[in-house]
Amino acid sequence: MKKNFDAIVVGAGPAGSSAALTMAKAGLDVALLERGAFPGEKNMFGGVLHRLTALEEFFPDFWDQAPLERHIVKKGLTFMTGEATFNVNFDTQASDRTPYNGYTVHRPRFDRWLAEEAQKAGATLITRTTVDDVIREGGKITGVTTLRDGGALKAPIVIAADGVLSLTAEKAGLRRPKFDRSHMAIGVKALIEMPKETIDERFGLVRDQGASTEIVGCTEGVRGGAFLYTNYDALSLGLVLHLGSLADSGKTPYDLLNRFMAQPQMAKLLRGGRLLEYSAHLVPEGGYEMMPELVGDGIMVAGDAAAMCIVTGLNLEGINLAAQSGVLAGKAALEAHNSRDFTKSGLSIYRRMLEESFVLKDLKLYKRAPHMLHNDRIYTSYPELVCGIMDEIYRIDGNPKSTMTQLLMRAVKEKVGLKNALADVYSGWRSL
Fold it and tell me: How many C-alpha atoms does 288 have within 13 Å on its Cβ side?
């Protein structure tokens, strides 16, 4: 196996493959390392693939080339209690035109496709290869060592795109060995096989239209929420649970997921489906506040390895940030090769590119959102408040009606407390 390259990318997810694709198309000799048997084998995805403007540079007809499932035209937010649900839906046919704003995908298929495109451009994909350390020469990263045959690969630039627990970034001294659990969440997902016709009828869809729903109030007091997304002939549903809150609860994520799936409101949507698989994945919920150093001598960090994830409760963004950061890391590597400067200073253009893009602008904008999501009332009191108000509005029992103001004030006092509600509104306003 060849030992020397112009650049080494660790991790063949969206960030790593985007970086490899960018560099390979420009003529660099790139090694793309993946610990799985194929790219995407070990990845879990419980969200919407938002429009990847960075990749449209290489694929003008991205929505026709990429292995996408459905394009999202319906987005919903559901407040759930044990007895009721209240749904807020946004349905727009404007998003039923290319370029689409969001898609559902299967990560094994999507990641494999993107890595193959990097290969077609000239990158060398090396699978079943786990990086266990970085190589230093003169204080600069000049390659990596792997567990595969005790191998060592050399390159003047290494891009760490090996996920939220990035060993490469840790070995390079760019991130701390241990994370604050308040910055982490765990996502657990079930994939339910279901005929396309059933999905279309059940969710009011036609052709390749898709729907996504975020759900609050279904996690038994653990901080977190649920998601439900329509694939072409399957449903992806699961929970994203705050790691510290989950540990304190003593509950297991799969027990919570199974009970969520058995709730009457969910059971009727899943009726007739067949469970294909369970999966789990850590989520860098802390976003901007848990980001490691992005640049060092001979190394850059991208995607989940750089905690590039936005969790607001309404949206969960990651792949679009990862792909954009990968493309920018690739472009920074090209600049470094042109100037022959692989020092931290030479690679700092990567940080500047990120600052000028939506990636760091959005991460900074929502940096306080994780703090707001640590409010336990969001997951218990507010779903009960919303569903309770709607129950009173629709109840006909012979008693005089209250005004909406009276209903709201009474519900707030009973379920949350006026002082708490005002504090929560202020906190939410500051965060978003």
Answer: 17
Q: Domains along the chain? A: 7-69+105-177+290-356 (3.50.50.60), 185-283 (3.30.310), 371-431 (no CATH)
Beta-carbon contacts of 411 under 8 Å, excluding residues fewer than 6 positions away, are: 385, 388, 389, 392
CA gap 133, 352 in Å, rounded: 27
Tokens of 11: 């991790």
Question: Do 208 and 71 touch, CB atoms closer than 8 A?
Answer: yes
- HSE at residue 173, side-chain half, CA atoms within 13 A, is 9
DSSP result, 351-380:
HHHHHHSHHHHHHHHTTTHHHHTT-GGGGT
Residue 298 CB contacts under 8 Å (≥ 6 apart), including other chains: 140, 141, 142, 156, 157, 158, 342, 343, 347
Q: Are strands 7-10 and 30-33 parallel, antiparallel or unpaired?
A: parallel
Instruction: Record the pTM.
Output: 0.89
Q: Which two tokens stand for residue 58?
A: 């290489």
Rounded to an integer, what distance in angstroms lies between the CA atom of residue 186 and that of residue 240?
6
- The residue type of 330 is G
Question: pLDDT tens, position by position, for the chain (432 residues)?
Answer: 679 999 999 999 999 999 999 999 999 999 999 998 888 877 767 668 887 888 888 998 888 899 999 999 999 999 998 888 899 888 876 545 667 778 898 888 999 999 999 999 999 999 999 999 999 999 899 999 998 877 899 999 999 999 998 999 999 999 877 777 778 889 899 999 999 999 999 999 998 999 999 999 999 989 999 999 999 999 999 999 999 899 999 999 999 999 999 998 899 999 999 999 888 888 888 888 889 999 999 999 999 999 998 887 667 788 899 999 999 999 999 999 999 999 999 999 999 999 999 999 999 988 888 777 777 888 888 888 888 888 888 888 778 888 888 888 888 888 888 887 787 677 766 666
